[in-house]
Automatic annotation (TrEMBL), chain A:
Record domain Cytochrome b/b6 C-terminal region profile: where: 227-405
Lineage: Bacteria, Pseudomonadati, Pseudomonadota, Alphaproteobacteria, Hyphomicrobiales
Record-listed heme b b566 binding positions: 110, 211
Family the UniProt entry places it in: Belongs to the cytochrome b family.
Subcellular location: Membrane
Membrane topology recorded in Swiss-Prot or TrEMBL: Multi-pass membrane protein
UniProt-listed PANTHER family: CYTOCHROME B (PTHR19271)
Name the UniProt record assigns to this protein: Cytochrome b
Residues that hold heme b b562 according to the record: 96, 197
TrEMBL record, chain B:
Organism from which the protein derives: Devosia oryzisoli
Family note: Belongs to the Rieske iron-sulfur protein family.
Keyword Zinc: no
Subunit structure: The main subunits of complex b-c1 are: cytochrome b, cytochrome c1 and the Rieske protein.
Name of the protein: Ubiquinol-cytochrome c reductase iron-sulfur subunit
GO cellular component, one term: plasma membrane
Note: The Rieske protein is a high potential 2Fe-2S protein.
Name of the top EC class for this enzyme: translocase
Cofactors demanded by this protein: [2Fe-2S] cluster
Spans traversing the lipid bilayer: 15-36
Catalyzed reactions: a quinol + 2 Fe(III)-[cytochrome c](out) = a quinone + 2 Fe(II)-[cytochrome c](out) + 2 H(+)(out)
Cofactor info, note text: Binds 1 [2Fe-2S] cluster per subunit.
Superkingdom assignment: Bacteria
Length: 417, 175, 288
């Protein structure tokens, strides 16, 4: 939005800099003056919270890497060395471990906010797709990070997830061995996961930059989903949203700190305090909570479909669940963006959120219990029906409520109500 | 537009901003310190900052190299002749004047304990070598006498004597 | 208007969500819960947000560990110096030095490859190798104690595990260990076939445990404390103390972590309050 630039270099030095590297102009346009809809609610602060989460993970992660040893003989004890001997290591390590959960909590809220308010709709499809790419990268990063402490869950998680690739017909086994660097998960696996776990967050940061770039072309969506019409609809980003986002971050840090200092292990699994043992699988193996919904989808396909066996079927379903997110801008063609003005959508969306909680819950339950098995399948079915049937059909049949003509009208109406 | 009420609310607002900014600053400092402090030696390293070593097994004329804080340390049981030789050197001949008494503990003169890194660029000198019967650094040819004092070559200082004390006649505590 | 409607919708929705999850949880846990025995939760000095270790208890627990457990179980992450560090059993440095000197550790640079331990050394392993440990214990491997208290837990049924997030319940490990040590039966129940060389325990998964009942009344002589009080020398007391010791062993910085946490939370709440006030000031007069 450089055409709105109001930056006038204040001094000769600034002028000199502006002609060569217009960084002050850029900051002023994109961080200070950027016109932002005035009606954004607190759900919109999660974008900033996620940037904070990424920052926390990168800073604490770099520190942990200074003390960690990526070798199967020493990895487990080196994590304990961090907790026991390194100055403040107990807390830094807990921030990183709890930080992963906090990151996903914020990420899910951010995604569900987008799904409700139609933030994926034109002209924000690329913005949305970049977001899904970030989501997938963060899942991969978190998974590889969980392998590093080299506990029982680390080892068996790595075994199970790398095994997923063996479902690919013909080349699956070769790909699996390529990923593991051996026939089973071992030292080469740990070393490459460490390397990639260190690399990926920086790639995530780069995609985040693209994500924000793609945000700053059309500007923010907002709770009523009506595009900004003129300057009465917007506020400069600073100080209004810098302050609102900062408040969101500080409030978010309160439960974060609660877990870090008072229950740092509650989100993990006791079995990961047992050093990896390739001869014994823990009786109850579950991924971390944030991967559970997709784990349920993976497990739900326990039957063969034509020539596709159940293993490949599960992998296809899991991949499909991501694909649904990627193409949702073209599945939901309703012209109204915000769920607030869609009386039918609202209820199906609410059910979708509940269903997602159900998917998460079922991921940790024993699927050999018939009831769990059936419920799991029902949840998986609704996940796909929501994207592939409900959203396209609703787009055609639903009559939305009348929209306000502009943000400022809606805001004034609210103030006078 | 500017009324009295607005003026006082401006003051209150300024105070609030300053207070919030100050608290944010305190918080930032409190976060930054542990992130730096983690770089300091950890508890397992500090636990070895002080070691005790039993010297009773070192016969006269022998040197043992031990590790202290990750550095090599010479523990030399000097012969009477070596002590004699060291004491006989006039201070005026020394580049870094120190008496033999300053480099040993009273009552334990035969024992010379020094960090075994040449004060030039950190190599470990070879013992009982060089024209001063002390140490000779193979890297750049610095030569030390029987008290570990620099006599020749590019090194500027005597070999460093670490802080230590005799707990008993046979036990030294270094560090 | 929209905001309020939305908020109402969200609230209704969250209540509905909780109700559904609750229903779901009850149904599926009832289906899944079979024979998992109920583990009695103990009252620990280190529980809750103000919890700290009881030094005397850690000293007694260490005594139990040293005199009984350590003959088979290692604690490879325990350094002697830890016993005198802040937040731990609180032995003096001299006591630790004397204690360490009673043990020998491997040191390739020492004469004969062994030397007396110093405070910086780790607790020596009871067996030279895993195979030796198995041979001496009927094929079973006695697990290392270093982080064992965190590697064990109590499985709470729904919805109780949710409450744990709010009470910060982290004492599942010591609760389990305490229950296990008190869960032995001389005879297995009717119809349970106990394999040769195994012992029946209520709380061990599968009930057949390789470890014989390690504690019995009076095996460890507790000394009287400064008030002349001697605690009962019972399995109950021993197991309580050694469980607390194992929790400290697994999480030695618990007390300082919780103290820091309290300060951090107070700070954050205060800071959030100031931020809220500032945000309101900035937004005052803006219709949004």
């Amino acid at each position: 939005m450089s055409e709105h630039s109001t930056y006038v270099p204040g001094s000769a030095v600034e002028k000199w800099l502006d002609d060569r590297l217009p960084i002050i102009r850029f900051s002023k346009e994109h961080l200070m003056d950027f016109p932002t809809p005035k009606n954004l609610n607190y759900w919109w602060t999660f974008g900033a919270i996620l940037v904070m989460c990424l920052g926390i993970q990168i800073v604490t992660g770099i520190i942990l890497a200074m003390h960690y040893t990526p070798n199967i003989a020493m990895a487990f004890d080196s994590v304990e060395h961090i907790r026991r001997d390194v100055n403040g290591g107990r807390v830094i390590q807990a921030v990183h471990a709890v930080g992963a959960s906090a990151f996903f909590a914020a990420l899910y809220i951010h995604i569900f906010r987008g799904l409700f308010f139609g933030s994926y709709k034109a002209p924000r499809e690329i913005l949305w797709i970049l977001g899904v790419v970030i989501f997938i990268l963060v899942m991969a990063t978190a998974f590889m990070g969980y392998v590093l402490p080299w506990g029982q869950m680390s080892f068996w998680g790595a075994t199970v997830i790398t095994n997923i690739f063996s479902a690919i017909p013909l080349v699956g086994n070769s790909i699996m061995e390529l990923l593991r660097g051996g026939f089973a998960v071992g030292n080469p696996t740990l070393n490459r996961f460490f390397s990639l776990h260190y690399l990926l967050p920086f790639i995530v940061a780069a995609v985040v930059a693209l994500h924000i770039w793609a945000l700053h072309v059309p500007g923010n969506n907002n709770p009523i989903g009506v595009e900004v019409k003129d300057s009465r609809d917007t506020l400069p980003f600073h100080p209004y949203y810098t302050m609102k986002d900062a408040l969101g971050m500080v409030v978010f840090l309160i439960p974060f700190a609660w877990f870090v200092f008072f229950a740092p292990d509650i989100l993990g699994h006791p079995d990961n305090y047992i050093q990896a043992n390739s001869q014994v699988t823990p009786t109850h193996i579950v991924p971390e909570w944030y991967l559970l919904p997709f784990y349920t989808i993976l497990r739900a396909i326990d039957f063969n479909v034509l020539f596709i066996d159940s293993k490949l079927g599960g992998v296809i379903a899991m991949g499909g669940s991501m694909l649904c997110l990627l193409v949702v801008p073209w599945l939901d063609t309703a012209r109204v963006r915000s769920g607030s003005f869609r009386p039918l959508f609202k209820w199906f969306y609410a059910l979708f959120v509940l269903n997602f909680i159900g998917l998460t819950y079922m991921g940790a339950q024993d699927p050999s219990v018939p009831l769990n098995n059936i419920l799991g399948k029902v949840f998986v079915a609704y996940y796909f029906i929501y994207f592939l049937v409900i959203l396209p059909v609703l787009s055609r049949i639903e009559t939305p409520k009348p929209l306000p003509t502009s943000i400022s009208e809606s805001v004034l109406g609210k103030a006078h109500a | 537009m500017a009324t009295q009420a607005e003026h006082s609310s401006t003051n209150r607002r300024d105070f609030l901003y300053v207070a919030t900014g100050a608290v944010a600053g305190v918080g930032a400092a409190a976060v930054v310190w542990p992130l730096i402090n983690q770089l300091n030696p950890d508890a397992s390293t500090l636990a070895l900052a002080t070691i005790e070593y039993d010297i009773s097994a070192i016969p006269e004329g022998q040197t043992v190299t031990i590790t202290w804080r990750g550095l090599p340390v010479f523990v030399r049981h000097r012969t009477a002749a070596e002590v004699e030789e060291a004491k006989a050197v006039p201070l005026s001949e020394l580049k870094d004047p120190e008496t033999d008494e300053q480099r040993t503990k009273e009552g334990h003169e035969p024992w010379l304990i020094m960090i075994a890194n040449c004060t030039h660029l950190g190599c470990v000198p070879t013992g009982e070598a060089g024209e001063f019967d002390g140490w000779f650094c193979p890297c750049h040819g610095s030569e030390y006498d029987t008290a570990g004092r620099i006599r020749k070559g590019p090194a500027p200082k005597n070999l460093v004597v670490p802080p230590y004390e005799f707990v008993s006649d046979t036990l030294v505590r270094i560090g | 208007m929209i905001g309020v409607a939305q908020f109402m919708f969200k609230t209704k929705f969250i209540i509905a969500a909780l109700a559904v999850v609750a229903g779901l949880g009850v149904v599926s846990t009832q289906a899944a819960e079979g024979e998992a025995p109920h583990i009695e939760k103990q009252s620990w000095s280190f529980g809750g947000i103000f919890g700290t270790y009881d030094q005397n208890q850690l000293q007694r627990g260490f005594q139990v560990f040293r005199e009984v457990c350590s003959s088979c179980h290692g604690a490879r992450l325990l350094a002697f110096r830890n016993l005198s560090e802040e937040g731990g059993p609180g032995f003096s440095e001299a006591q630790v030095k004397a204690l360490a000197a009673e043990y020998e550790v491997d040191d390739p640079s020492a004469e004969g490859g062994r030397r007396p331990a110093v405070a910086a050394d780790r607790w020596p392993e009871p067996f030279a190798s895993e195979q030796d440990a198995r041979d001496a214990n009927g094929g079973a491997l006695p697990p290392d104690f270093s982080v064992l208290a965190k590697a064990r837990g109590v499985h709470d049924a729904f919805p109780y595990w949710i409450f744990n997030y709010f009470t910060a319940y982290q004492e599942g490990g010591p609760d389990y260990i305490h229950a296990l040590l008190n869960g032995y039966h001389e005879e297995p129940p009717e119809g349970f076939v106990l394999p040769e060389g195994k012992y029946y325990n209520d709380y061990f998964p599968g009930h057949a445990i390789g470890m014989p009942p390690p504690l019995s009344e009076g095996v460890i002589a507790y000394e009287a404390d400064e008030n002349g009080v001697t605690l009962p020398q019972t399995v109950e007391q021993y197991s309580y103390d050694v469980s607390a010791f194992m929790m400290w062993l697994a999480d030695p910085h618990l007390a300082s972590r919780k103290q820091t946490g309290f300060a951090v939370l107070v700070f954050l709440v205060l800071f959030a309050g100031l931020m809220l006030a500032t945000k309101r000031k900035i937004w005052a007069g803006i219709e949004h």
